[in-house]
Every structure is written in structure tokens, then in C-alpha cells.
């Protein structure tokens, strides 16, 4: 007979968090526990099961075959428990704190203007909003949804595409008046190209030459910024030339505050925006499902 003092669901949740976070310390931060408490709990779980679940090293954790099978089973068990709780609370309105982490341009120009409508529609939900272009760990940051632009890396997370936008090279009229307008990609060698202070998926600007062959121009300039909105503002101020999603600068182009450049050499690249989250389908918390559906309904890029 099973011991009545064993919190099996708690053990499973901690083990799943350890696997997804990649370390005891990261899981401990997400669960608001100490690393030693997490380590002891996993050791007790292994002793009770009579099987080693993870091989520990100073650099990373590696699942054993038994650990991998237990992880898959644990995910199903936690999902079934969540579904049972939702069924018990059927008919209740989405509620609780929703933690959202978004890249800065999307947060400033798309999400924040829409949030009053969302909160009016779901008055029992509260929002905790963080704006950053840095890549985050959802588990460590305790975020329910992260909204990011660009290619997605491999992970156990689920992504929902919100839209995509062409990329455009732009500069302010004041900059072009002083430095001249580049007519070919090679002419960018004599111009200030604004860059980001974090690692990008592609280290350069993509163009095609007159024959349609791909061409990459390195990003060389005197300014690095932390996010896309800072890049837009520096470009508007006449600091240099930048490459941004067209939706982000469409209003500036329409108003004449920014000028598109080298359009004949644009390869047609597009940047996608995704909402990334843990879980899927009917296993999503109601507040997360409501938010994702709202984004799909209202966001236009």
C-alpha cells in the first residue's frame, strides 16, 4: 500500500520542472524552493521508485531511460490533474494573474494599446507585463506567455503564430540630407549601420545583388541598442540606418519621418511573431487560452 504521507503530485511537478529548467537551481527558482530541497526531493523520489532518473554532472542534467519515461508519464498526469480541476470549475470565468513577457516594439505599439480591452473583457484577470527583447526562460521567469519575433529555437514549448511582416531598411530624412542616400548595398560601407547589443539569428543585413544573388552586409556602426524600439527612436533621431520590421515603422514611413532604402535589393525577408507558452489544447489554463485567443482576434502586423 502506498504511504499516505507521500505527495506524489508534488514530486512529479518538481521533477518535471527540473527537466524543463535543465538544473536543480533553475527549477528551485521557478518553484521558490532551495536547490538543496529540490535535490533531496528528487533523491527521495528515486529511492522510492528504485530507479535513477537523472545523471548529475557539474554542467548539466541528463535523463536516464527511466527518467525520460517517467517525465513523459508525469506530463500526462499533471495535464490530467489540470483538466480535472478545470472540469470541476466549469463555467467559471478566466481568472488569476497572467504573466506576459513581450519584445519591446510589440509591447509598445501593439499589446499595450489592446490590454485595456482585454482587461475589460476579463475583469477577473490581472496582468503582470515585462518588456524586453532578450531571450528568456519561461520556467525561470515564471511567465505564462512570451511574445517574440524571429525564428524559434527548438524547445518543449508551444508556439502560436500571431503574424509576420516584411523587413525594411530605413533612415530619417535628416540623416540622408547629411550623409547622402545609398543607392546600392555596397554604398552602405560609407554609412552608419545601427545594430543590437545582443546576439541575433543572422549577423548581418540580407540583400540581393542586381542579378538576384544573395548578399550579406555586415552591421558596422557606432551604436548598439537593447531593443527594437530604441533602434527606431535612434533612427528617427538621425543617428544612422537601421533594418526593422515594416509594421514597426509603417506609420513613420507614411508620415515621412523615415524613408525606405534599397527596396530594389530587398530579398523579401519576413519576420514572424509568435506567442510561446507551456502546454496545449484543453490543458491550457483558462486565463492563458483567453489571452491567446484575444491576440489572435485583435493583433494585426
TrEMBL record:
Keywords: DNA-binding, Transcription, Transcription regulation. It comes from the Bacteria. GO terms for molecular function: DNA-binding transcription factor activity; sequence-specific DNA binding. Coiled coil: none annotated. SUPFAM superfamilies: Periplasmic binding protein-like II (SSF53850), Winged helix' DNA-binding domain (SSF46785). InterPro entries: LysR-type_TF_proteobact-type (IPR058163), LysR_HTH_N (IPR000847), LysR_subst-bd (IPR005119), WH-like_DNA-bd_sf (IPR036388), WH_DNA-bd_sf (IPR036390). One of its GO terms (biological process) is DNA-templated transcription. Residues 12-64 form the HTH lysR-type domain. Belongs to the LysR transcriptional regulatory family. This is LysR family transcriptional regulator. It comes from Mesorhizobium loti R88b. The lineage of its organism: Bacteria, Pseudomonadati, Pseudomonadota, Alphaproteobacteria, Hyphomicrobiales.
Amino acid at each position: 500500500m502506498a504511504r499516505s504521507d507521500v505527495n506524489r503530485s508534488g514530486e512529479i511537478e518538481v521533477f518535471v520542472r527540473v527537466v524543463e529548467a535543465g538544473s536543480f537551481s533553475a527549477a528551485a527558482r521557478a518553484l521558490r524552493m532551495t536547490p538543496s530541497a529540490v535535490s533531496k526531493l528528487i533523491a527521495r523520489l528515486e529511492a522510492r521508485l528504485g530507479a535513477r532518473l537523472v545523471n548529475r554532472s557539474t554542467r548539466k542534467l541528463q535523463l536516464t531511460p527511466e527518467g525520460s519515461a517517467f517525465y513523459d508519464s508525469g506530463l500526462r498526469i499533471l495535464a490530467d490533474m489540470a483538466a480535472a480541476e478545470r472540469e470541476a470549475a466549469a463555467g467559471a470565468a478566466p481568472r488569476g494573474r497572467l504573466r506576459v513577457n513581450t519584445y519591446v516594439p510589440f509591447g509598445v505599439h501593439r499589446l499595450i494599446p489592446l490590454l485595456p480591452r482585454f482587461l475589460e473583457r476579463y475583469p477577473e484577470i490581472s496582468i503582470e507585463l515585462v518588456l524586453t527583447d532578450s531571450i528568456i526562460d519561461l520556467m525561470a521567469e515564471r511567465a505564462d506567455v512570451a511574445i517574440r519575433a524571429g525564428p524559434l529555437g527548438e524547445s518543449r514549448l508551444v508556439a502560436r503564430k500571431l503574424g509576420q511582416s516584411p523587413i525594411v531598411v530605413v533612415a530619417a530624412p535628416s540623416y540622408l540630407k547629411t550623409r547622402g542616400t545609398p543607392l546600392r548595398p555596397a554604398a552602405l560601407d560609407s554609412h552608419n549601420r545601427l545594430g543590437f547589443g545582443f546576439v541575433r539569428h543572422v549577423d548581418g543585413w540580407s540583400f540581393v545583388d542586381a542579378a538576384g544573388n544573395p548578399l550579406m552586409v555586415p552591421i558596422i556602426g557606432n551604436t548598439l541598442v537593447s531593443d527594437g524600439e530604441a533602434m527606431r527612436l535612434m533612427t528617427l533621431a538621425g543617428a544612422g540606418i537601421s533594418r526593422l520590421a515594416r509594421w514597426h515603422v509603417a506609420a513613420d514611413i507614411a508620415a515621412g519621418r523615415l524613408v525606405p532604402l534599397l527596396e530594389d535589393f530587398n530579398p523579401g525577408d519576413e519576420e514572424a511573431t509568435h506567442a510561446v507558452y507551456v502546454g496545449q489544447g484543453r490543458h491550457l489554463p483558462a486565463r492563458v487560452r483567453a489571452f491567446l485567443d484575444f491576440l489572435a482576434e485583435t493583433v494585426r502586423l
